[in-house]
Structure formats: structure tokens, C-alpha cells
Amino acid sequence: MRRILHLAPILAVMAVSACETMQGAGRDMQTAGALLTDQAATSQTQMGQQPYTAPAPY
């Protein structure tokens, strides 16, 4: 039982740091997606096409 009590704070810190890591990765992926979307729209405009616009949500 004492061993579990010693490991609990370490496990809690690891869980919190994993959440922060995943949030950071999610933000990075969102930024990359936005940049890719902007670049695709710019390329389409340069080729003389209308950029794709997503349909409005319901």
C-alpha cells in the first residue's frame, strides 16, 4: 500500500504532462491544417479557379 502511495504523485504528474503534450500536438496540427488550406486557396486563385469553400453547417 505504501508503494502505491509513493507512485501516485509520479503517475499524476505523468498524466498531466501527457495531456499537455496532446493539446500541444493538437494545436500544431490545427495550425498546419490552416496553413495548408490557405496555400491551397492561394494556388487555386493563381490558376484562375475559385477556391473551394466548405458548405455551411446546419
Automatic annotation (TrEMBL):
Signal sequence interval, chain numbering: 1-18
GO biological process, one term: response to toxic substance
InterPro entries assigned: Entericidin
Cellular component GO terms, alphabetical: membrane
Superkingdom of origin: Bacteria
Family according to the record: Belongs to the EcnA/EcnB lipoprotein family.
Protein name: Entericidin A/B family lipoprotein
Lineage: Bacteria, Pseudomonadati, Pseudomonadota, Alphaproteobacteria, Rhodobacterales
